Each structure stands twice: as structure tokens, then as C-alpha cells.
């Protein structure tokens, strides 16, 4: 036992304030110099995290409270990154469960708590954002107790300590309204309630790799928990690979965490969380152990992916103009590299050599991967996300999610209709008396594809939508999702304002004037359910007479610029999103009109016309 260390993960629903709390914890522990300028949410260090204001990757830090070292893992709250949380829980001996004092427990709160309870990790419960005018800490605390009970927590687990915080201001209270001015009550609760790590410094060496990081100076870093034994720099140890082989390796670079820094260490002992550099090919889940008496640890088991997307070489007529990496070889290598650090993703070969089936936890997770690749200079195409189906005892199963929607009361009707058409089943409706209601549903994951944008339209942007994978259920048969067709360019060329002007009453346009298009490219959404071939390159016939003011009268309604996620949500089975470092285009899979298979909507329309 190492009484001078505590290892904790901070877990919560998205945006409840984990990273902000880590900020003020670091600041108050004296990690930064007095005059050091530190950005807000300093742990959200990669570009996409900063742009989107969310945590994507779990990250380690450490601070000292008196003479106790507290290793902290800041985890992401969005459900698509649940794999990061599962992995973080392997590293720690307890959790700080953070809950927004106004929003209360939400689906990801349930998910992470369930994982923590299953791993028998004791929690310190923190009610954050108590400064919010709509904070309702007593009620939320009751909801937290209900959640614990619902998850079959034991008496012991129910006896959790509670701290009330304003993470932004860096204040924690034992009781609401006490005169605390800093986070001392939180630090004390952690040291008093989270058990010190077990493990014997004299035992057989066992370090497990739970995360990988990259440093420009050191290359690949393996983040490990030392479960047993002592490791010295320069020592020759065994590395138990995932395939069961035991290789020998020399540990030349060894680090411990301190704030945002990594300190070189000569020796690390059981209980600590450390980083190792310079070990070729090291992977998540592998154990560093004794060469003579190897004792590999159980591999990490995390939830299976639920969503798949085809990633394919860009075959559009405009391919290769904007990106540097465009071949199937480039794509294959990049995806293989992703697998090394991203344990919740799988890659399979698809039906052509130019395409791969990438499996993950959700649309956002895959969209982040695509966005990262495009910034690296890749061009690719992706297909419509499809859910992963499973067969058990001869029965076809599909993933099902818990969906929580928070909306103004006036939208209940339309929400029920939309969710109903996607086979959602309501479990609960609760009204907090603020004019908003919270609806809990069970819904097949398939029903969630494209749901977010539709609900935001339905509720004029006021809906808060949260969902989380819950399990598997019997496959429910077909579900028609996009009720509209596409406006499809019928020839290559450059779009003109005149042509677009003539089309805008047909539906909503995705492109403006002077955009290069090709046959089969989608330029808008048809307001009817069939696809429609359109000419967006038409020029106005020149005549000698200027027809009064009509020339100047071309006023285009601003087109809808789809973001990557919106584009992915929009496409149907027979369509692709084409992604390059500079552009996001939508297209039919089969570009040439006369070769394109007819969609069921068209077949039905022609049957109706014949009758
Ligand atoms: N009013 C108030 N706002 C807070 C408090 N703590 C955090 N916030 C704000 O809540 C927002 C989300 O904070 P983050 O720290 O990014 O939340 P997170 O839990 O790390 O989010 P993810 O990692 O994406 O799940 C930010 O705008 C914070 O400034 C608080 O105690 N009071
Ligand atoms: Mg965060």
C-alpha cells in the first residue's frame, strides 16, 4: 500500500465541468508559477478540443496536496468517447462523480457511474455549478441517490461523501452556504475517502499500458499504472504482448506526472501512474513484467462499437486537387495508425480494395476522426452511418440507447411524433416546473441517425438531446429515415446565380454560385421525396435588349452550408460525403444518371403515375 498516493478519475456527463474543475485544482495546488499565464481548460490541449469546447481524449495530470500525490485522469463526457472513460477507470482507485447542480444526472452520468460501481471504485460525489441561478442541489442530490439505487449500489456505495462546488471560481463547500473560499474540502474528501493504491513494491513487476500519448521530443509514450513491484530506469524487463508473446525490452525513459509536465524518474513503485518512452510498438493493454517470472495482467475489455461507416478512396471527378493523401494505401496506413491509440475503434476490409469499414461508438467519434484526417491532408469519401447488428442464438439483435430530451413544454407533441416514427418508446416524463420537460426514451440506435438535426429544426434549436448505448434488443425491421430526396447536378460545370435562383423554390440549396460541380453531385435537398436532376450551370440567354431591372433582381436565399456532421447525418444509403482538406461535398454513389439505380421513392412514384 502506498499511502502517499491517490489515483482518481473525474467522470460526468458532457459539459458538467470536469476540465474546469481540474483547472482550479491544479491552480490551487501551486502547480503553476504565481505569474504564469494559463489558458482556460488547459487540459483540453488539442485543436479540436479547443475549437469545440469538449474533451475528446482522456488525459493525465498530477498534483500534490500536502505530501500526498493525487494522480488525476480528466475524462471526456460525450458518450461517443466512452471507451476513454472505461480505460481511465482501469488506472484509478476511485472516482469523482461530478453532476451539474441544475441539470442533474443525465445519460452519461448513468453510464460512467455504472462502470465505476461495477469496477468497485468508491465515488466522491461533487455537485458542481452551484452558482447557477437555476441550481437545485437538494433535488439533484435526491436524483443521484435514486440513480445509485437504480444501479443496484450496495449500502457501502450509497454512503458517498458529497461536496458542492463552483468549479469556475474554485470553491468547494461541505454544506451549501458554509464560508469556504477554496477547494480544500474537495482535496480533503478525496484523500480521506479514496483508498490509497494497493500493490507491493517488492512484488513481481506489473505495469499495464492504459493509454498512449505522443510527444514531439520523445515519440510514442505509454501511460501505465504500476500495479506491483518497482521499475528502475535502464532495467531490462519483459513485455507481454497482446498475442501472448513475451519480449525483452530495456526501459530507457521513465516519467511521472506533475501538473502539465512530465518529470524524469529513476525509480517508480507500485501505486503510481507513469509514462514510458522508447519502447517500439508498445500497445494499450500490454503488461510490462518480470522476464523470469512473468505475470501478465488481464487485457482491457471495453464495450463493442455500435456504429459503422464506409471510408473510401475519393473517386470523385475533383479528387486529388486539394489533398496530399489520396490513395487506398494512404487510407489503410492511416487507419492502422489510429487503431494503435484508439481502442474503441475497429477497422475491417469492405467489399472493394478501395474501401474500409470503420466501426466506432457514434457519429461524433467518427466525425472527429474524419476531421482530424482532413486536417492532415487526406481526401476520402464516407458512406451513411449504419448500426452494427449482432446475431445471438440465431436471433438478430440491434443496439438500443437511452435517449433523454429536454424541451419547452410546447414541443411535446412534435417530439413524440418524431421519436415514435423512429420506434422510440417513452419511459418517463418529468417536469421541473420551469416550463421545460424532460422525456426519457428507449430507442434503437438506428433511430438516432440524423435525429439531432431534425429535432433541432422541430424545436427551433431549443432541444437538449443526450443519448447513451444501453444494450441490445431484437432487430425491428426497416425504418425510413430521410423523408426527402436530393437535388442532383446533371452535368459538370460551374454553378451560376441565375440557375440557382431558378431552383431555390424546389428545396434548400447546399451550394452558392461559382462553385465547381460534377454530374451526380448533390447541390441541395429536394422538398419532395424523389431525387431531382437539375442544371446548376445554366447561363441567362444574352439578348440585345436589357429587360428592365430583371437582371439585377437575382436575389439568392443564402444556401445552407453543411458541416461535416450535418453532411454525414443528411446522406442516404446511395450517397457519399466527399471530404478534402478544403471542401465537403455530397454526391450520389453512382454519378452517371443513366447508370444510377432507381430509388424506391422513384419506383413508387412511377407506379402511382401509371395507375
Ligand atoms: N456557472 C458555472 N459554470 C461552470 C462551472 N464549471 C464549469 N462551468 C462551465 O461549463 C462549461 C463546460 O465546462 P467543461 O469544464 O469544459 O466541462 P467538461 O465536463 O470538461 O466537458 P466535457 O469534457 O466535454 O465532457 C464551461 O463553459 C465552463 O466554464 C461552474 O461551477 N459554474
Ligand atoms: Mg472536459
Which keywords apply here?
611 residues, alpha+beta, eleven-stranded mixed β-sheet, eight-stranded antiparallel β-sheet
Briefly characterize the structure.
The chain is α+β, with helices and mostly antiparallel strands and 611 residues long.
Question: Can you describe what's shown?
Answer:
The model has no long low-confidence stretch (mean pLDDT 90). The radius of gyration is 27 Å and the shape is globular. It starts with a strand and ends with a helix. The protein is α+β, with helices and mostly antiparallel strands and 611 residues long. The protein is built from 14 helices and 35 strands. Strands 18, 19, 20, 21, 22, 28, 30, 32, 33, 34 and 35 form an eleven-stranded mixed sheet that branches. Strands 12-11-17-8-9-16-13-14 form an eight-stranded antiparallel sheet. Strands 2-3-1-4-5-6-7 form a seven-stranded mixed sheet, with helices on both faces. Guanosine-5'-triphosphate binds next to α1.
Topology, pairings included?
Blueprint lengths: L4 E8 L5 H11 L18 H6 L6 E7 L2 E7 L7 H10 L2 E7 L6 H12 L4 E6 L8 H14 L4 H4 L3 E5 L4 E3 L10 H10 L12 E10 L3 E10 L1 E3 L3 E5 L5 E5 L2 E6 L2 E4 L2 E3 L3 E5 L9 E3 L17 E6 L15 H14 L4 E4 L5 E6 L2 H13 L4 E4 L2 E2 L2 E3 L2 E14 L3 H10 L3 E7 L4 E9 L6 H8 L5 E11 L11 E4 L3 E2 L2 H7 L3 E3 L6 E2 L3 E6 L5 E3 L29 H7 L4 E5 L4 E5 L11 H11 L1
Parallel strand pairs: 1-3, 1-4, 4-5, 5-6, 28-33
Antiparallel strand pairs: 2-3, 6-7, 8-9, 8-17, 9-16, 10-15, 11-12, 11-17, 13-14, 13-16, 18-20, 18-21, 18-22, 19-20, 21-34, 23-24, 24-26, 24-27, 25-26, 28-32, 29-31, 30-32, 32-35, 34-35
The chain binds guanosine-5'-triphosphate (GTP) and magnesium ion.
Amino acid at each position: 500500500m502506498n499511502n502517499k498516493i491517490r489515483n482518481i478519475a473525474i467522470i460526468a456527463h458532457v459539459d458538467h465541468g470536469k476540465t474546469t474543475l481540474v483547472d482550479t485544482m491544479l491552480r490551487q495546488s501551486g502547480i503553476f508559477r504565481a505569474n504564469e499565464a494559463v489558458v482556460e481548460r488547459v487540459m483540453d490541449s488539442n485543436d479540436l478540443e479547443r475549437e469545440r469546447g469538449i474533451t475528446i481524449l482522456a488525459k493525465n495530470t498530477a498534483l500534490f496536496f500536502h505530501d500526498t500525490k493525487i494522480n488525476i485522469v480528466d475524462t471526456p463526457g460525450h458518450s461517443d468517447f466512452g471507451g476513454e472513460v472505461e480505460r481511465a477507470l482501469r488506472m484509478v482507485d476511485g472516482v469523482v462523480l461530478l453532476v451539474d447542480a441544475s441539470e442533474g444526472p443525465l445519460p452519461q452520468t448513468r453510464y460512467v457511474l455504472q462502470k465505476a460501481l461495477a469496477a468497485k471504485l468508491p465515488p466522491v460525489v461533487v455537485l458542481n455549478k452551484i452558482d447557477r441561478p437555476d441550481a437545485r442541489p437538494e433535488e439533484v442530490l435526491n436524483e443521484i441517490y435514486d440513480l445509485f439505487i437504480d444501479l443496484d449500489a450496495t449500502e457501502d456505495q450509497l454512503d458517498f461523501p458529497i461536496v458542492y462546488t463552483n468549479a469556475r471560481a474554485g470553491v468547494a463547500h461541505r454544506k451549501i452556504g458554509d464560508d469556504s473560499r477554496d477547494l480544500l474540502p474537495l482535496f480533503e474528501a478525496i484523500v480521506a475517502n479514496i483508498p490509497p493504491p494497493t500493490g507491493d513494491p517488492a512484488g513481481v513487476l506489473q505495469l499495464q499500458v492504459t493509454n498512449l500519448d505522443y510527444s514531439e521530443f520523445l515519440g510514442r509514450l505509454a501511460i501505465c499504472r504500476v500495479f506491483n513491484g518497482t521499475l528502475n530506469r535502464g532495467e531490462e524487463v519483459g513485455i507481454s504482448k497482446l498475442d501472448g508473446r513475451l519480449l525483452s525490452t530495456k526501459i530507457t525513459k521513465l516519467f511521472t506526472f506533475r501538473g502539465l509536465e512530465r518529470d524524469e524518474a529513476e525509480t517508480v513503485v507500485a501505486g503510481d501512474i507513469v509514462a514510458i518512452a522508447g519502447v517500439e510498438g508498445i500497445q494499450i493493454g500490454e503488461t510490462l513484467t518480470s522476464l523470469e517470472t512473468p505475470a501478465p495482467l488481464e487485457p482491457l475489455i471495453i464495450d463493442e462499437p455500435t456504429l459503422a461507416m464506409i471510408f473510401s478512396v475519393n473517386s470523385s471527378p475533383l479528387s486529388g486537387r486539394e489533398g496530399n493523401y489520396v490513395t487506398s494505401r494512404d487510407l489503410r496506413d492511416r487507419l492502422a495508425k489510429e487503431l494503435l491509440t484508439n481502442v474503441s475503434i475497429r477497422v475491417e476490409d469492405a467489399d472493394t480494395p478501395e474501401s474500409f469499414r470503420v466501426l466506432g461508438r457514434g457519429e461524433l467519434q467518427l466525425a472527429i476522426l474524419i476531421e482530424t484526417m482532413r486536417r492532415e491532408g487526406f481526401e476520402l469519401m464516407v458512406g451513411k452511418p449504419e448500426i452494427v447488428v449482432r446475431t445471438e442464438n440465431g436471433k438478430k439483435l440491434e443496439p438500443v440507447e437511452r435517449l433523454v430530451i429536454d424541451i419547452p413544454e410546447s414541443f411535446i407533441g412534435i417530439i413524440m411524433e418524431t421519436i415514435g416514427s423512429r420506434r422510440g418508446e417513452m419511459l418517463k416524463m418529468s417536469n421541473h416546473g420551469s416550463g421545460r420537460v424532460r422525456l426519457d426514451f428507449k430507442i434503437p440506435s438506428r433511430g438516432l441517425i440524423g435525429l439531432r438535426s431534425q429535432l433541432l429544426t422541430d424545436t427551433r434549436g431549443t432541444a437538449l438531446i443526450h443519448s447513451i448505448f444501453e444494450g441490445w434488443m431484437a432487430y425491428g425491421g426497416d425504418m425510413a429515415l430521410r423523408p426527402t430526396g436530393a437535388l442532383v447536378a446533371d452535368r459538370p460545370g460551374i454553378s451560376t446565380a441565375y440557375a440557382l435562383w431558378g431552383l431555390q423554390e424546389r428545396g434548400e440549396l447546399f451550394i452558392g454560385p461559382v462553385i465547381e460541380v460534377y454530374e451526380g453531385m448533390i447541390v441541395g435537398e429536394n422538398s419532395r421525396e424523389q431525387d431531382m436532376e437539375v442544371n446548376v450551370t445554366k447561363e441567362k440567354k444574352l439578348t440585345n435588349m436589357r429587360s428592365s431591372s430583371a437582371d439585377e433582381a437575382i436575389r439568392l436565399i443564402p444556401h445552407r452550408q453543411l458541416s461535416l456532421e450535418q453532411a454525414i447525418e443528411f446522406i442516404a444509403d446511395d450517397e457519399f460525403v466527399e471530404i478534402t482538406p478544403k471542401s465537403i461535398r455530397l454526391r450520389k454513389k453512382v454519378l452517371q444518371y443513366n447508370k444510377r439505380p432507381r430509388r424506391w421513392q422513384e419506383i413508387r412514384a412511377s407506379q402511382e403515375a401509371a395507375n
